[in-house]
Amino acid sequence: MSGFSMKAAIVSGLIGLAGVFSAGASAQAASPAVSLTISGVAATGAPVVQVNHRHGHYNRPQYRPNRYACTPRNAVSKASRMGIRGMRVHSNRSTIRVSGYRHGRPVSVLFGKARGCPILR
Questions:
Q1: Whether residue 11 is found in the same domain as residue 50
Q2: Is 77 inside a domain boundary?
Q3: Are 111 and 98 in contact (CB under 8 A)?
Q4: CA torsion through residues 3, 6, 10, 12, sign
Q5: Residue 51 resides in a domain
Q6: Does 119 reside within a domain?
Q7: What confidence score (pLDDT) does residue 12 get?
C-alpha cells in the first residue's frame, strides 16, 4: 500500500513540474523580447506602474476636499447680504454658525457645509 501511494505522489509531482515548465515556455514563445526596466521606464518606452497594496491602500484616490462646499468665507458673504453686521464665525464638521447683529438685535444663522451654503436655522 505504501509503495502505491509513493508512486502516485512521484507521478503527480512530475506532472505538476511539467505543467509549470511548459507554461513558462509557452509564455516565452508568446513574447520573445527581453524586458528591461531602467529607472522606472521599460525598454518598450512605457512607464512602469508601481502598485502599492500594502496596508490596505489598493490605489485609492487621494483625498481632495470638495471645492463646491460652503466655506466660512462664503457663509460670511451670504450673511452680509442678509443684513447681518459685526459677524463672528463658529465652524464644525458639518455646519457653520454666523453670529452678529441685525437692526441692533443679536442674530445667529446656521449654514450647512453644502454647495450654496443652505440655511439650516
A1: yes
A2: yes
A3: yes
A4: positive
A5: yes
A6: no
A7: 78
Mean pLDDT within 15-20: 73
Distance, in Å, from the CA atom of 14 to the CA atom of 58, rounded to the nearest integer, reads 37
Establish how many alpha carbons lie within 13 A of residue 11's alpha carbon, considering only the half-sphere containing its beta carbon: 6
Phi, psi of 109 (to 5 degrees): -125, 135
How many structural domains compose the chain?
2
Record the cell numbers describing residue 115, joined without a space: 454647495
C-alpha cell at 95: 455646519
Residues 51 and 80 both lie in one domain: no
Q: Are 87 and 46 part of one and the same domain? A: no
Whether 117 is in a domain gets the answer no
- Model confidence over 29-79: pLDDT tens digits? 555 554 544 555 556 667 776 665 566 656 666 677 777 899 999 999 999
Half-sphere exposure of 82 (CA within 13 A, CB side): 22
User: Does the pTM exceed 0.90?
Assistant: no
C-alpha–C-alpha distance, residues 80 and 87, integer Å: 8
